Amino acid sequence: MKRFLNWAGASHRRPEVRRALARAQYAAYVRQAPVLYLTVAAVISAAIYVCGDWNKPALTIAAPLLLAVACLVRLGVWLRRRNVEVDAEIMARRLVAASWLATLLAICFTAWVTSLYFAGDPALRGVIAGTFGVTMLSAVYCLVNFPISALAVSAVCVPFVSLLLALATPEPMIVGGGGLFLVMFGTTYMIVRSARDFLGLVAAQVDAKQLSDENARLAHIDSLTGLPNRRQFFEHLEAAVAGNPAGARVYVGVLDLDGFKPVNDVFGHVVGDRVLVECGARFTHVVGGEAFVARLGGDEFGLIVDSVYDESRVLELGARICEATREPFAFDDAIAAISTSIGFAACPDAGDTPRRLYERADFALYFAKQNHRGSAVVFSEDHERRMKGAALVEQCLRRADLDTEMTVEYQPLHEAETGAIVSFEALARWNSPDLGLVGPGEFVPVAERSDIIYPLSRALLRKALKAASAWPDDIQLSFNLSARDLMSPAALTQIIAIAASGPIAPSRIDFEITETALVTDFERARKAVLALKSIGASISLDDFGTGYSSLNYVHRLPLDRIKIDRSFVREMESSPLARDVIKTMISMARNLNFDCVIEGVESAEQLALLRSFGCNLAQGYLFSQPLPEDEVLPFIAARRDRSLPAERKIA
Ligand code: C2E
Ligand code: CA
Ligand code: CA
Q1: How many CB atoms lie within 10 A of CB 314?
Q2: For 559-578, how does the pLDDT look when each residue is reduced to its tens digit (9 = 90+)?
Q3: CA distance 484 to 444
């Protein structure tokens, strides 16, 4: 019995196959049962018409009428079930009940036909048996997808009908009985075969569905953190935007870990991965059910907060996330400290398509990273203006003739003690025919975000080298390289080729690099520095102290100078802390045998103080503003004419 049930699928060991089978059989039954009951009711009605005899009302009228009504009731029941969705469990239960009922009806039907047969006119017997056989045959066909029922019906009917036909007179009916028996037998065999095929088909469909479900699940999950991935993020965002109730906002958040790259570099990828996993867990914990969290890739996460009626709720959530990341990440032998910056954009204010919202949130993130590291910023109208401005700058920059529109100004670096000029730093200037004068603070970041930075750096370097060839040999050229130049081996090769074959000795060139490159990929940056040094150039680390974990890098690189960012000098006079930081940085540079340049020196008092800290090089408006090319030589000549140190002259 168990084997039979197993074969029929009713007790299949995989519940999902059982459920799928129940569903498929139910679907077939719902379609076929009405046909079956209608056929049987029609046959019975015909029998009443032909055999109805008021002398035998119970057998020829009442009993068949009762059977026909029972069939019609079942017909109605199944017709009503046609379009009603039910659970697989209920389907299975209904199918079992239906098969018992069908068997019961088959028994009643057979009993009635048998009685009719023996009570009837011998001439009618053959017709009765034949009609009965054909009816049963069609019943069995109708039940073909539900083999238990089909076999029960045929088990009840086949022996009877064969017997009846065998008993039938006239003689040829014996042959008919045998023939029908064979047909029934063949039908039963076919039911067994097709039921097995049906079960196999259902199991294969279940397998295929499970496989595709699993594939779909994997395609939507980030394998490292187990969080939804980028694809699922955008699908969710699409749905959230579409379903946003009137008056409410959907906030899209882009989260980026500050200082994650150094953790990866210093402690290795295993620790880096653990930080990402832990971050995912913290974010999920902090937001609870309030928002949808996803990992978008690298150290970037995404957040979707829907049905927001009050922006402060989102900012408060952002603050909690930032707070949760500030808690150090402790592993067996490492403690990593990072923070999270978040950019939010609201739908519909900032845009109403997922792409647009993501772009705006990404811009807000960029803004947060530049100005409010470790906190959350919501995209505003001011950001929209800046974004449009940057887009315009990019458009014009793409069309610009770099050789004619770009010029270079030169700002001297002096020895702090004597005021002697050591070098001139090349600072790019853009005179755009469409936009007028644009400062490097505006166009260099735009060039860096597109690929324009490569030709731009090359054009500026050629110009600067040409200008420097007119200067005395003991004065260096300081040239700013972008992190993108260092990160691209092809771009770096071209820069090196220009420097090596330029009109001045490469040893007179000092390349200024920023921490951004070191933080992006330290190993690559180190190789780039070595390559630049291999032609004899020297290297300065620019804007020192503003980056993330500067001290991690400086002693691992063959630097020549560090340039302490001008923000420290600005605060030096008012803040004892800034003074202490400068002092520490200067003494560290001296210990590591680096020259130390202080940028942004604007007053003689600042210079005096810095000299007392041991700083050996200085740059700033105190000495000179950046000079146009043609003013450099006169400036040098004027300086050399004077024998006194710069600050005494100025003071
Ligand atoms: P930076 O490399 O830190 O350049 C120093 C900036 O400080 C220059 O601004 C300079 O004019 C300004 N500065 C110099 N002394 C003082 C001072 O005493 N007080 C104040 N308040 N500012 C002073 P500039 O020319 O606007 O350049 C801004 C930034 O643009 C540069 O910062 C550099 O990061 C970038 N940049 C400029 N030219 C180039 C270039 O040719 N290539 C690349 N990649 N970046 C460049
Ligand atoms: Ca610089
Ligand atoms: Ca600088």
Answers
A1: 22
A2: 999 999 999 998 888 889 88
A3: 11
